[in-house]
Amino acid sequence: MQEEKYADLIWDHDENAHKKFIENLAPIVLFTYNRLEHTKKTIAALQQNMYAADSELYIYSDGPKNDVATESVEAVRAFLHQVDGFKQVHIIERKKNWGLAENIIDGVTGIVNEYGKIIVLEDDIVTAKYFLKYMNDALEVYKDMPKVMAVSGYAYINDCENLSETYFLPFNACWGWATWKRVWEGFERNPKDLLKRYTKDEIYRFNIDGAYDYWGQVLDNAEGVKYTWAVFFYEWIFRHSGLCLFPNKSLAQNIGFDGTGENCGKDTKFESLVVGEKQVKLYCRRVEPSILACEKTKKFFFKSKSNGLSVVINKIKKLLLR
Predict the structure, then answer these.
(1) Ranges for the Glycosyltransferase 2-like domain (predicted)?
(2) Alpha-carbon gap, residue 168 to 173, rounded angstroms
(3) CA-to-CA distance for 222 and 122, rounded, in angstroms?
């Protein structure tokens, strides 16, 4: 019997399966700091999502790193305590400043260990209406497929011509993503150890065949120039030849490249338009990277570098995460 090309989302047409599916939706975890207007937009978009009312929302509010930030952090927290529209809202207020990386690592670890799966957002990620639907569908379809290690709601490329509705890439994106306990439990942040482990050829492949300098982030972490987490999650995926699922039309938009963030410059090249206005229905059963999507993504990175993105990247490298 020939293998079906796409997964059957049985919960979409079976009442009992749908009820069970809704009862087991992945928790949403949102990380916030001191940007009230960004946080409001992120929450407002999330509230409009299908499945929002049936989902648990955990919000981690980092503490102020200095007296100047106290007022803005308190303003965000006052707003968070008014948030509704979800099955339940849990607010975790950090008593001290953890910094973005430690806040995410600790929060994701705690929640994913409890639920077995997780959907992660930061306070500058605006989602489309079917973002949660796509995330929960993918988490269910690929839960027992070890090679699939993450799900991205953000798409680097807007050119989706000849691409299937979903596709796999051998790297991830951290602007609206999801994963499972089976993947995250192996996560480790040990930059100095990586310096000993990787060959030049492996570094070239790690940098998406020279299209983007991910290894530079590892070096900056090893030297103490910055303290981040996402590049090490990518490294874990890369080391195990894992894949990340992407939608052919982005379901998440990063609105943080407006100069307000401490680790982002003022730039629009990564601000993918939220164009995914329809439900994603086709999830490939065959788990393998899309050659076409890989080439399109490489071209995007190379073109961005030639247009001056490298200047922005160099500035970002010099900034410490909050």
Answers:
(1) 28-141
(2) 12
(3) 24
